[in-house]
Amino acid sequence: MNSVEVKHTCGICDESKERGIYLYHLFICCECEQKIVHTDPKEPEYKNYISKLKHINQPTMNL
């Protein structure tokens, strides 16, 4: 039986990945999920993650 590789574009790093989670309409790859969880709010990357996560409930257009 053939397995089909399905890739999704991460809403944080904008890379195409196989594994991750969906939060509403936003796909987050496993790597970014771990980075978000372990980033201290005082770190500069934190603001970037917050900015990207603001789009969490906005549906994307599937063309």
TrEMBL record:
This is Sigma factor G inhibitor Gin. It holds the Pfam family Gin.
